[in-house]
Write a structure and sequence with these properties.
Radius of gyration: 16 Å
Shape: globular
Number of strands: 6
Strand order of the largest sheet: 2-1-3-4-5-6
Length: 216
């Protein structure tokens, strides 16, 4: 099962610390990490977003992984990969993703300059703090922000041939996720009480929802 972390984070920070690998191993799945370009030890992107999608789909094929879990930018990357190859995944878990991500047509590229600004706003300052705490270079993750494509058009999600679980904190500013869930052929939504964007991957309710999803 492929796991893709969020923007400014790493596999260990998003998934390892809360204990996702052990959780999935307990129900018979092996976690396959996929690092966003420019994050952690993954090289700064040298190509296009399509190259990143090809790499992700290639990893899934080589590992025999037909399920995947993403958080935030990782969820968007999985969606773009599934639109590119609709039969690649049978089940997707998309955490920290909502309709607000479709409001800015530039996607993550708008973050590139603000990340390295001398006086960032409060939300960017928090993102910078989290990114540096995870061991990331601001310049490297800004390079990924410039290369990443925007979210796929909602109508294109109709071609997905996968069961999808969307998990979103009720205090996450990218919410709601009504339009996203409606656009997916087979999707359910789990709302996490009293949970903001960054706390979603470590939420016990999120873990329980994922266990139930894969037990079906």
């Amino acid at each position: 099962m492929v796991f893709v972390h969020g923007f400014g984070s790493t596999h260990d920070a998003t998934w390892g610390v809360p204990g996702w690998p052990e959780l999935m191993e307990d129900i018979g799945y092996r976690v396959v990490p996929f690092g966003l370009p420019g994050h952690g030890d993954t090289p700064v992107p040298g190509g296009t977003d399509d190259d990143t999608l090809d790499e992700l789909l290639g990893v899934a094929r080589r590992e025999g992984a037909v399920s995947a879990v993403g958080f935030s930018a990782g969820s968007l990357l999985l969606l773009r990969a599934a639109v590119r190859d609709p039969g690649a995944f049978e089940r997707l878990v998309l955490i920290g993703i909502g309709d607000g991500m479709w409001a800015d047509p530039s996607g993550f590229s708008s973050l590139a300059d603000t990340l390295t600004a001398d006086e960032p706003d409060a939300s960017t300052a928090l993102l910078r703090q989290l990114a540096e705490r995870a061991g990331n270079s601001l310049e490297s993750i800004a390079a990924y922000a410039r290369s990443a494509a925007p979210p796929p058009p909602l109508p294109s999600l109709q071609r997905l041939d996968a069961d999808v679980l969307v998990i979103l904190g009720d205090e996450d500013t990218v919410g709601p996720a009504d339009a996203l869930v409606s656009a997916l052929p087979r999707a359910t939504l789990t709302s996490l009480p009293r949970t903001d964007h960054y706390r979603a991957p470590s939420s016990p309710e999120a873990m329980s929802a994922v266990l139930d999803f894969f037990a079906r």
